[in-house]
Amino acid sequence: MARILLTGATGLLGGAVLHEALQRDDGTAWVCLVRCANADQGRQRVAGRLARFTDPFTAQRLARKVEIVPGDFTQADRDNDPRLDDVTHVLHLAADTSYFGGERLFRTNRDGSLALARRAARMRHLRRFLHIGTAMSCGADAGPVVSEGRSDPAARHLVPYTASKAAAEEALLAELPDLPLVVARPSIVVGHSTLGAGPSSSILWLVRAADRLRLLPCAPESHCDIVPADWAAGALLTLLLKPHLAHDLYHVSAGRPSVTRWSELNRAFEACEPSDGVRALASFDLSDRAALRDRFREVFGLDSPLKQTMLRATRAYYAFCALDMTFANDRLLAEGVAPAPSLSAYLATCLANSGPIVDQFADDLEMFVRAPQAPAALPQAVVA
Q: Which domain holds residue 68?
C-alpha cells in the first residue's frame, strides 16, 4: 500500500492533488509535511486549503484522513521523525515562487530540495520521488515548441525563480544519482475546470487584465500554454502512482493539442462579457514601458501601492507571454493522460465566480513584494 509524503499541501496544486486523492478513498496513506507549531494547527491549514475545493465540513472530514508531520522541507535531512521512514512515494510541490527572492530562492528551491531528497534516500521502501519543477526551467530561448528534455545549465532566465528550479533539477541529478527521481514540469496553472476561480485566482487576474487592457506584448495569434489545476492534479497523480513510467521527465502542459491562443481567448471573453462587438487586441513592444504604464493607469489607475505592484506583476508576466512558447506533452499523453481542456473552454466557469480584477491579484501579491533588505552589519565594537 502506498504511503505518500506531500510537501506544499497548502498551495494551489498541493490542495488540488490532495483533494483529488482523498476523494478516491483507495486506502493510500497521505503524510503532509507542514510548517506549523503542532499537528492540529497544520491540519487546520490543510483543511483551509481543501475548503477551496469543497464545503468546509467536507474539508474538515478529508483533513482528518491526513497524517500531519510538522516540519520544514528545507531542513528535512535533519528530521528523524520515524513516520517518514516507511514513505513509499514523495511528491515535492513546495517552493518559493517569489519573483524577487534572489539568493533566498536558491537556498529554498535548490538547497531545500536537496535536503528533502537526502531524507528520502533514507526511506527504505521509496519507489518514486516526484519533483515538481516548472516548464520554464528550459530558459527563455528554448521556444517556440519546447521538447520534454533536460535543460541547458547555461540557459538564460527571465527571473531567478525559474533559474532556481532548473538548478534544483541539476543538483538532484548530480548529487543523488540513485534516487528514483521523476521530474514533472507544469506550465501555467490557471483556475479550475469546474470550480472556476474558487480554488485560486492566481494568474487568472493577468488574463483578465490583458483582456481589459486590450494590449499584448505579442501577436493575437500567439500561444499561451495554460492548464487548469484539477487536470494538472490528475496528471501528477498518474506520474506519482503509475507503477512504470517510460521517462523520468514530463511536461504537465497543454502542449500542441490544447494550447490557448490569445485570439481564441478574445472571442471567449466576448461571448462571456459582450462589449461593443469590437474587442480588438493591440500589440505593443514590451520595452516601451510608458505604453503599458499609461494604458494601465487609464484602465485600472495607479492610485495605490496594490495597483502599482499589479503593474509590476503585469509587466513580469507579459515578458513570459512575449516568448510565445508551447510545451510539448507527448510523453505525458503516451502515459494515458487525456489532453487538458483549453482555457477558452472553461473561461466562462472562471468568470462566473470572479470578483474585481485588482482584488483577484491579491492571490499573487506576495510573489511580487520585494523582501526588505537586511540591515548592514554593525561595527564589531558596537556589536560587543
A: 3-201+224-258
How many helices (DSSP H) and strands (DSSP E) are in the chain? 16, 15
- 277: helix, coil or strand? coil
pLDDT digits (tens, 9 = 90+) for 286-328: 999 999 999 999 999 999 999 999 999 999 999 999 999 999 9
Residue ranges of alpha helices (H) inside the chain are 12-24, 39-50, 56-63, 103-105, 112-120, 160-175, 204-213, 229-241, 255-258, 262-272, 289-299, 305-321, 330-334, 343-352, 357-360, 380-383
pLDDT tens digits, one per residue of 18-51? 999 999 888 899 999 999 999 999 999 999 999 9
H/E stretch holding 182 reads strand 181-186
Please give the model's pTM, rounded to 2 decimal places.
0.94
Domain tally, the chain: 1
Give Cα 289 distance to the centre of its chain.
27
Q: Residue 102 CB: number of other CB atoms within 10 A?
A: 12
Give the domain CATH number at 87: 3.40.50.720
